[in-house]
Amino acid sequence: MTRSVKSLCLSLILGAVCSFGVAAQSRVIEISSPKMTVFLPPKGLESGKAVVALPGGGYSHLAVDHEGRHWAPFFNEAGVAYAVLEYSMPNGDRNRPMGDVDAAFKVMADSAANWGFKADNIGIMGSSAGGHLAATMATHPTDNCKPAFQILFYPVVSLDPSITHKGTRKGFLGDNPAEDVEKNYSSELQVKPETPRAIMLLSSDDKTVPPANSIRYYTALIDNNVPATMMVYPTGGHGWGYRDSFKYHDQVLGELRAWLKSF
Q: How far, in Å, are 23, 76, 87, 125, 181 from residue 26 at the CA level?
């Protein structure tokens, strides 16, 4: 399943400033094949945590800005090293994006001492279909990828046709998957007591990815005694990510900041 980590190329840019005008980062690392950009907080501000973020896009494209890079200043100001992974589209082959995440976690863990965080304190974050990939990796850990925590924005969790996002299901599994495969990658059915803690943030009026996805996952986590938090906002629909126009944007930042400090 795992794609070769040897193909990853590193380029360290010292004193870099993000293109969206925030200078919270002291260092930005760009990695290619697959592409990953790592934003490191200033020296002395490190919390010991890191996050690998997986933007959404229904497994057909990636919303790499508002569900990826635009979150970097928030995490860096909290002392969290933050990586945005531009993973491969599966086109029915789930091993492609899963292998990319596996390789990304290997790079992060191998670089942890130099980049100012703990190798066993790397969390995973995902939005929409990226949330499905994040929850999948959290419930299917590998030797390289053992997320310490999960941050999920309006995630696709289940591949049950009654509540899933059809494009995500088809992109990840292809046409007409076997029932056992569908269940294996429906993360609400794969939670175990060792599954990492999670926070889910979503809107109750989401018509693209039904809130039942998060509700089922939250219930499974609680049933397995896994610490779980779910924040459901009254309005906002789907796909708001890091956007000031989202009515509850400041509330999201405050609640996520408090959650990150809680462990």
A: 7, 9, 25, 22, 43
Residue 151: how many other CB atoms lie within 10 Å: 25
Angle, vertex CA 44, rays to CA 149 and CA 25, nearest 5: 70
**pLDDT 10s digits, 177-190:** 999 999 999 999 99
Q: How would you classify the pairing of strands 149-153 and 48-54?
A: unpaired
- The full DSSP string for 47-100 is -EEEEEEE--STTTS--TTTTTGGGHHHHHHTT-EEEEEEPPP-TT-THHHHHH
- What is the model's pLDDT at position 20? 34
3-class SS of residue 179: helix
Amino acid 167 reads G
User: Three-class SS of residue 243?
Assistant: coil
Segment 5-14, tens digit of pLDDT:
333 444 433 2
Q: How many C-beta atoms lie closer than 10 Å to residue 126's C-beta?
A: 29
**CA gap 84, 68 in Å, rounded:** 6
Any bridge partners for residue 28, and if so which?
13, 39
Backbone angles phi, psi at 259, to 5 degrees: -65, -45
DSSP letter for 188, please: G
Report the run of H or E that residue 197 belongs to, with start and end.
Answer: strand 197-203
pTM, to two decimals: 0.91
10: number of Cβ within 10 Å: 12
Q: Are strands 149-153 and 81-86 parallel, antiparallel or unpaired?
A: unpaired
Q: What is the pLDDT of residues 116-127, one digit of tens each?
A: 999 999 999 999
Tokens of 243: 């956007």
Q: Is the pLDDT of residue 254 over 70?
A: yes
